[in-house]
Amino acid sequence: MFVRKSPPDTVIPATEGANADSLIRIRDLNKHFGSFQCLFDINLDVALGEVVVVIGPSGSGKSTLCRCVNRLETISSGVIEVAGRPVPAEGRELARLRAQAGMVFQSFNLFSHLTVLQNVALAPVKVRRLPRPRAHALARELLERVGMADQADKHPGQLSGGQQQRVAIARALAMEPKVLLCDEPTSALDPEMIQEVLDVLTGLAAEGMTMLVVTHEMGFARRAADRVVFMDGGRILDVAPPEQFFTDPRNDRAADFLAKVL
Ligand code: ADP
Ligand code: MG
């Protein structure tokens, strides 16, 4: 169904490419929860069309990093820009930015009282103010893209976890985001459902969607990532193309981590 895009000729280092092509630009980000420092001096760029996969042990700050990008968390210091603009703390600009950075969570968070179609069409109607027929047409198109068109009239409770997550991805796409942030999108799924969700994400990557994906799925990281970011203890310890990261990790803690998970 999808064609894998060819890998980029040049790989952009974590902090290079601070130009118009950087969809996400993070500089010197620090994040505290009270007296606990969760993120330390994070610098990272995600270029237009790039897929960056974040891996690392539990508690290393991966979710918090994602959540800081669209301000589900406040930041303590540093700068985060999306599409060339600093992420504001609140207000209409923040809503605009959230629309540009769609988020897919581990728990799908679909509205159980709405049908699949209504879940996907909701934000286009309420936030983007599309006329209902147009929003529904868009929702059907997106459901087609994630292989869920035939389930449009069901309620989330009638679907498997993998199907619900595919609907959640369609819902995120319905805002026509510039970048998709995915925080462990397959961690809550039974093993047999993981691949169908990864296939959808791989397809989006092949179509050129910019993505920041936190995952423990090493096969996906290896195949779909343009760059892999390894985090531990709130720090980025390595950024590398998947080929290098998985065959010859430069960082000792990354090597230890891979020895445990591969
Ligand atoms: P990961 O996603 O890599 O497992 P998290 O970003 O969820 O890591 O958490 C990183 C660290 O920050 C952990 O030690 C976690 O306990 C802590 N943390 C996360 N959210 C909060 C919060 N709301 N309040 C206090 N500590 C938090
Ligand atoms: Mg997490």
Which spans of ≥5 residues are poorly predicted at pLDDT below 50?
A: 1-13
What are the secondary-structure elements, in order, as H or E?
A: EEEHEEHEHHHEHEHEEHH
Mean pLDDT: 91
SSE class: alpha/beta
Distance between termini?
28 Å
Radius of gyration: 18 Å
The kinds of small molecule bound in this structure are:
adenosine-5'-diphosphate, magnesium ion
Share in β-strands: 15-25%
Overall spatial form: globular
What strand order characterises the main sheet? Answer: 6-7-8-3-9-10
The tally of strands reads 10
Number of helices: 9
Query: What composes the largest sheet?
Result: 6 strands, mixed
Task: Determine the fraction of residues in helical runs and give it as a percent range.
Answer: 25-40%
Summarize the structure.
The chain has 262 residues and is of the alpha/beta class. Helix content is 36%, strand content 24%. It is found in: Cell membrane.
Q: What does this protein look like?
A:
- This protein is an alpha/beta fold and 262 residues long.
- Helix content is 36%, strand content 24%.
- It contains nine helices and ten strands.
- It has a six-stranded mixed beta sheet with strand order 6-7-8-3-9-10, sandwiched between helices. A four-stranded antiparallel beta sheet has the order 2-1-4-5, with helices on one face.
- Helix 3 (116-126) crosses helix 4 and helix 3 packs parallel to helix 5 (161-173).
- Residues 1-13 have low confidence and may be disordered.
- The structure holds adenosine-5'-diphosphate and magnesium ion.
- Magnesium ion binds next to helix 1.
- This is Glutamate transport system ATP-binding protein.
- It comes from Kineosporia succinea.
